[in-house]
Each structure stands twice: as structure tokens, then as C-alpha cells.
């Protein structure tokens, strides 16, 4: 996330880093399932972390679908044209 924010000046790089973050979030979900299946996490902790991952995924998805809100100068430019 920090890396994508730092690259928000470059829209394609910004989206690429957000995509990387979403992939890492999916990987985290896989490891959470693995940890639960092998007794490293109980069901309560698993559910809690899984909900957190789902929320992060929603936020990342929103950012990827609305990148203009996070790019410097873009939102301001669109608002003044209207």
C-alpha cells in the first residue's frame, strides 16, 4: 500500500501496485486457511482475520475502480471542469 501511494503520481504504476497489494491479500487468505487447517489458528481467530482480509480486499477494489480519487491533481482538475 505504501509503495502504491508513493507512486500515485503515475497512474499505471499506482494501479499495478494496488493489484500487487490485492494479490498479497489473497495470498494471506490462503495462508490463514492453511494455518486453521493445521491447527495454528482456532476458528475464532481465523474468522476475525478472514473478515479483516475481506475488508482490505473491498478497500483495494474500490481504490482500483476509482483511482482518480487518489491521484494528485486529477480529482481537482475534474471538479473544476464541471
Condensed summary:
This protein is mostly helical and 82 residues long.
Structure, explained:
The protein has 82 residues and is mostly helical. The protein has helices at residues 2-6, 11-37, 43-65, 74-81. The chain has a domain at 1-27. It is built from 4 helices and no strands. The chain starts with a helix and ends with a helix. The mean pLDDT is 87.
The percent range for strand residues is under 5%
How would the global form be characterised?
elongated
Number of helices: 4
Distance between the termini: 31 Å
Integer average pLDDT: 87
The share of residues in helices is over 70%
- What is the strand tally? 0
> How many whole angstroms does the radius of gyration measure?
17 Å
Largest sheet: none
Which spans of ≥5 residues are poorly predicted at pLDDT below 50?
Answer: none
Structural class: mainly alpha
Write the element-wise H/E pattern from the N-terminal end onward.
Answer: HHHH
Amino acid at each position: 500500500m505504501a509503495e502504491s501511494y508513493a507512486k500515485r503520481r503515475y497512474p499505471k504504476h499506482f494501479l499495478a501496485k494496488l493489484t500487487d497489494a490485492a494479490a498479497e491479500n489473497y495470498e494471506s487468505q490462503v495462508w490463514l486457511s492453511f494455518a486453521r487447517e493445521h491447527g495454528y489458528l482456532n476458528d475464532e481467530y481465523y474468522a476475525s482475520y478472514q473478515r479483516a482480509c475481506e475488508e482490505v480486499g473491498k478497500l483495494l477494489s474500490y481504490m482500483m475502480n476509482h483511482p482518480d480519487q487518489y491521484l494528485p491533481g486529477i480529482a481537482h482538475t475534474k471538479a473544476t471542469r464541471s
